[in-house]
Amino acid sequence: MPTPTTSPSSPPPSSPSSSSSPLPSGAEPADGTPVRIGALVPLTPPGWVGAGRHLLAGLEAAVRDVNAEGGIGGRPLELLVRDTAADPERATAAVEELAGLGVAALAGEYHSVVARAAAARADALRLPFLCSSAVLDALTDDATDQVARIAPAQSHGWRTYGDFLLATGHRRIAVAAQPSVYWAAGTRVLREHLAPHGGTVTVLDTAGPDPEGLCDALAESGATALLLLAGHPEPVVPLVRAVRRDERLAEVLIGAPAGQPELADWDALLGPDGAAVPFLRYLPDRLGPLGTRVEAELRRRLGETPSFVAFEGYDTVTVLAGLLRCRGTDRAAVAAAWPSVAVEGTRGVIRFSRRPGIGVWQWAWPPVQVADRDPADPGRFRVLYDDSSGPVRAG
What we know:
Layout: E1 35-41, H1 49-68, E2 77-83, H2 88-100, E3 105-108, H3 112-125, E4 129-131, E5 147-149, H4 154-167, E6 172-177, H5 181-194, E7 200-205, H6 211-221, E8 225-229, H7 236-245, E9 253-255, H8 264-270, E10 279-281, H9 289-302, H10 308-327, H11 331-336, E11 343-345, E12 348-350, E13 352-353, E14 361-363, E15 369-374, E16 377-386, E17 390-391
Parallel strand pairs: 1-2, 1-3, 3-4, 4-5, 5-14, 6-7, 6-8, 8-9
Antiparallel strand pairs: 10-15, 11-12, 13-14, 15-16, 16-17
Helix pairs in contact: 1-9, 1-10, 2-3, 4-5, 6-7
């Protein structure tokens, strides 16, 4: 998922949500002592707070359900939440703190560069980490048994987005890109995927011209689609407004493969200007009974339509709870069990495997859609493309 290009100074991690003394890995305390999972979530800027809010809602809803079903062998499951604020150094410090507090595993994180830093430290500490939302293929430098991922790899999702562009007749693509490992990786995936079909990708630097100047460069490029590979709300929101108001660009498709239009703050800031901007979302065509029930609970918690990020959070805790019930709280036993997972999640049965070029245990693959907000009703989503069936009639 997207990550800001700048980070604030790294304040010390927040204090635990409840006081306790650390427990060594694998210790079995007296009955009633909580089983703890550390949760990494961006809750303050420059992190994407909207995504963090949905991720945390999913994590907490799943913990509530696990405890309603008896917890982990009669012991309550508890989250120790740490705000990463999209800062890799802060995330690393949080991983170290949580490891010292005896958590059985780590969950969460949205921003790819932050999750990458957390994964490296978790691997070094031999602390199992189930990443919820970060999609960067290279989540770790080397293969590791400590880290698994619920979200699809960026290369898989963004190739689906490339298929959508080709299916809708777009081969001359411009990207408004900020400097970032994540955005550079996405640009490379799109370029390599489109090239065999005669597609081209032109990079427009968002650090250069103002929005009007970037519109001039876009008009000169002859591109039929502009993809927003940059931070939200800045510089994406003013750029969308500028393109919408430029008569030369009336026929240019604006796209956001990283998923910014999924969350309510996009609609709140852009209104009608934010409609008809296709984005990637990781939801099935129809939710099953579990997903439907969880959707209703998440809607109640959030006061708005839950995003795919909230479902990723719920599925993360569901998987970890299943492992802890079967394997106990020993960290080595949890990490060794990734390949044996078969857990019913909100969006299908979750299993992990090794995928070429990806060093973590990967759910291959969650459902992938391309969707947008309906211009007639920006609060309503339309599915435009499905990775299993191709183009979908938006209704």
